[in-house]
Amino acid sequence: MALPGDAVPFADYMTALAQAKADGLARRIGVSNFTTALLAKSTAILGPGALAGNQVEMHPHFHNRTVRDWCDAHGIAVIAYMPLGLGRVLGDPALTEIAARTGASPAQVALAWLIQQGVIVIPASKSRAHMAANLEAADVTLTDPDMAAMAATDGNHRMINPAKSPAWD
């Protein structure tokens, strides 16, 4: 995300990232919590295709469609942090119904839903068993009706919104 008050000019640190890549210090340039305005500004500075990924909050109760659509249109991978919504989404009726029918856990359903949309997921876990179960989400296949049911879960409920946040899309 851009530094508050443009403490370091945006163009300076974006071009520094490009220089680090050119110098072989990085293979790709990724950003975090960039809005469509910041993504557009970055692309204007670095050129199309320079950004590899944008890590953003995304889970069944916050689909972040505007940013996802922009990234998809510009070939930028979307990386979902908090894909389980801090565990708060696991009781969602759509997730629990799909989980019961498929034999997957609600967490696996939430992760599979994102994975099937081409989103990279990075769920946090303190438990080795949960980490192993999260990996199994890649083997869960949701049907078109399942995906439609999941599409209806968006309550536009952002869970992370610190005071220094940009003007979100």
Structure summarized in a few sentences:
This protein has helices spanning 10-22, 36-46, 65-73, 93-102, 106-116, 128-135, 144-151; strands spanning 29-32, 51-57, 77-81, 120-122. The chain is built from seven helices and four strands.
Topology:
Blueprint: H1 10-22, E1 29-32, H2 36-46, E2 51-57, H3 65-73, E3 77-81, H4 93-102, H5 106-116, E4 120-122, H6 128-135, H7 144-151
Parallel strand pairs: 1-2, 2-3, 3-4
Question: Which keywords apply here?
Answer:
4-stranded parallel beta sheet; 11% strand; alpha/beta; 169 residues
Largest sheet: 4 strands, parallel
Query: What share of residues is helical?
Result: 40-55%
Strand order of the biggest β-sheet: 1-2-3-4
User: How much of the residues is beta strand, in percent?
Assistant: 5-15%
Unreliable residue runs: none
| Rg measurement, Å | 17 Å
Mean pLDDT: 93
Structural class: alpha/beta
Q: Element order, helices and strands?
A: HEHEHEHHEHH
* Apparent shape: elongated
User: DSSP helix count?
Assistant: 7
The N- to C-terminal Cα distance equals: 13 Å
Number of strands: 4
